[in-house]
Structure formats: C-alpha cells, structure tokens
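User: Could you check the structure of this?
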Amino acid sequence: MGYSKKYLPLFLGLALGAGVFLGSKLDFNDPSAKLFSYNAKKEKLNRLIDYIDYEYVDEINTDSIVEVTVNRILENLDPHSVYISPEELEGITESMQGDFIGIGVSYYPYRDTISVINTIKGGPSEKSGIKAGDRILMADRDTLFGANLVREGLANKLKGELNSQVQLKVYRKGKGVFDVMVKRGRVPLQSVDASYLLTDELGYIKVNRFAETTYKEFKTALDDLIDEGVTDLVIDLRDNGGGFIAPALKMADEFLEDDVLIMFTKNKKGAIEENYATRKGSFEKGKVYVLINENSASASEIFAGAIQDNDRGIIVGRRSYGKGLVQREMSLGDGSAIRLTISRYYTPTGRSIQKPYGNGNKQYFNEYLERYKNGELQNADSIQVADSLKFKTPKGKIVYGGGGIIPDIFVSKDTTRIGETLDYMLRSGRMGGYIFEELDKNRMYYNGLSEESFQQEVNVDDTFAEGFLKYARRRGIEIELKNYREQLKKYLKATMAQQLFGTDVFEKIINKDDAMINKVVSISEEKE
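Assistant: Sure, the predicted structure tokens are below.
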C-alpha cells in the first residue's frame, strides 16, 4: 500500500492534465461585462490587499497573497477549477497547441552536457545534419555545458522566433567540434503515439492526449490504415487524461452516423448544449474497440461514452477516471488564468460520469487507492454501481453513471509491486539514461540500423538486463525481479527503440503480450 501512495502522482498525472474546454476565453478586462460589475464582496477583498500593501509593518509580496487567495477560493469549488500561473500557462498552452518553435531535438542533460537523444523527423535539426548522440555545447553565445548547467532554462535558449537562425557548436564522437547553423521551425508535439496493423484486418491507433492537432493526426493515421485494408480498429486511450473537447467530438464523428448524439452539456441554469455527428465518417461500419484504464479521463471518456452509448463498439479495460466537469480557461489579465468549471457533460444516454467530490479534494484525488483496496483493479465484480444510475443504450445494453466509463469487457491490472515499479520506470523515463549510455558505446552502428534490422539484430539478453539493474542500484533503486526479467528485457528494448526510431516502434514492442490488446485480437478473430 505504501508503494501505491508513493507513485500516485504517476497514475493520476495524465488524468489531471488539460481538462475539457468549451467555447472561447472570457476577457476579464471587458468593463462592459455585467459579470464583473461592482459588488461589496469584491471591494472587500480589494481593500484588504490595499491595506496590507500600504500599512502592514513588514515588506511583503502582495502578489503571492493574491495567488494564495485565488487558490483557496478555487479549492472550495471543485477539484478541477484551478489557478494557472503565467509560467505554467505558457507550457500548457504550448502543449495543447500541438507544436512549438524550436530546433527539433529530443535531449536531456547528460554529464553536464546537452545530449541529443534523437531528432524530430523532418525537423530543422535533422535537415541541418544533427544526429542522435551529438552534444550541443553552445547556442549562439550561450554556453550549454559545464557543472553549473541550469536545466530549467535550456529549452528557452534553443527556442526562438519562427525562421530565426541559431548557430550551434556541436561535438560528435569521431568528428570533434563543429558549427551548425539551424533555422528554427515549427516542431510538432505529437498526440498520436502509434498507428500500425495488429493483424491483417485489425488496425491500432494510440492517442496520448487531445490537443489542437490531434484530430488531424488521427485522421491521417486512420486513412493510412484504411488504405492498408483494415476492417476492425482499436483506439487506445489508456492514460489519456483528455484535453480539448473538439478533437474528441471530431474523432467520434468518424465512427457515428449523421445526426447521432455524441454528448451534451448542462450548466447551472439548466441550459443544454448538444453535439451531434455531422459528416460522413470514414469508419462507420467496421468494428471498433476502445481501450481505457483508470487514467483515461475527460475527453477520453467523452469519446468512449459516445461509442458505448450508441452501441457502436466495445469498451475494453478498466473503469475510467470519472471526470465529467467542463472547464473554461479565463484570463486574469496578468498572464495568469483560471480554469473554471462551467457545466457538466453527459453521454448520449444521459449519464454523468463525474465521480463524487463532495468529501474534499484530498479524498477525490486519493480515489485510486480506494479502487486498489476494494479490488476493483483486479475484479470487475468489485466495481461499485448504483441501480439509480442505470441507463440503457438503444439496443438495451445496461450502462451506469456515477463515476467513470465501465468497460464492456474487463481486463485486470498487474498491481504487484514489481510490475508497477517496472511500469513506473518505463513511463517516467528512468530507463532512458542507461539506454543512452549503451547506445553511445556504438553510436555509429545503432544510428545506421533500420527498424527491421533493429528488430532482427538487437537482442536484449540477461547481461544487458543485469547492467541496467546495476545502473539502477547505483542510483538507489533496488529491484528484485523474480518472474519479471523477460518484461524488463522487453521494456529495455522498447526504450532503445524509442530513442532510435520514436514512439511508434516503442509502442509496437511494448504492446507485445499486452493483455488488453491480446483480448481484442482474440475477440476480433471470432467471426460471426
């Protein structure tokens, strides 16, 4: 149980990510808005801040007082109404836009040097000849190496205006130090991690979040799979914490017939806004399987709920997170913002999947531990449902509201300490340092591999796995594998593939022997 608490932020991180946004941003600086007209309560707060600012005995930063006040106010509303500082807002906005202006490399500080893990395909650095394993020593006049390397500001030194140039000083084994001029460009932050064939007829697409570019990425992947002849499709939304609602609606539209209800929202005044399928979808006839787990939230639940409630496909996995509150981002005029819950969303049958939050935020965010304790992650019969929240789909299937999307087919989770430790180390990037060092020993060979030759030639054996365990021990991480050595080998090879080829090959390797995917494959092969 101590282990689960320790790593709770990992399990819930994605589910508390972007949230769901509707409508345009509200301008707090509009003097004509009745919403912000004078009232005594607001004036009381203003006077208090002024008194402290001008009369308090000690010098104090009243900006910090305001932030504390805003946070305390929002904490008393609901778990998803939150304050976003100017620094946080910049990163969140960039992530949800789906791209940024930069040089197009993945890197991390390694031995006080910026080391390139890989270059973004088709990006500025790849076009300029930067390769995996290169060390970036300087960007114009900024030094990017040394014991006093400040990691927090590195990204800003590599970013800049679109089409602006930056001169990099680079070190490469076997070549030494040389200069490269790179023209900054748009670098995609992909939200579709993988798209490939599981069988000749069954395609697979994994979506990690719902950003502005997600639908475009998804549609490209879907069209490619259709061209390859897929008749059935798996949409993997595991650990997808949501994001913008529009891409989720457009994705659902690809699978639903015209004028079918996708979802609706209701605000405190009872006003209802409905969203229907509109266009002729690309995949309205084939079988659809949606994978979800306890970290699938928000827009992921909208999509899964629309598929389930319209009897359009089969939901496989474990009960989703249970976030059915809709937020709107509102500027506070100083670069900061709040996300304020403005309504609730409902699936087509009329069920709310928002889990209860009346007992406070702490219990709300610790709900994963309750699922762990009551056995829900291992047994579908442990999922608590209420008859009062029972709904029927058009074909008569029983579905439930009250906290997440309950799958049609349940697949249990490996909750052993060893299994969860390995998953944590994989998804948190803890294996990346070891893999980088191993690749760096023979960089020319590894950089010359194709995906096919990598799969055939590279063997992660016991010696390689033991090397990682020693690497982990030196960093205070002790793992007793017992029956998990083969899983460790698979994870190490997947991490190697990610650094060499990207997320698509990573997911192909990770998904081998995946319980949910194996379940779907077996179902899809049962011909009616």
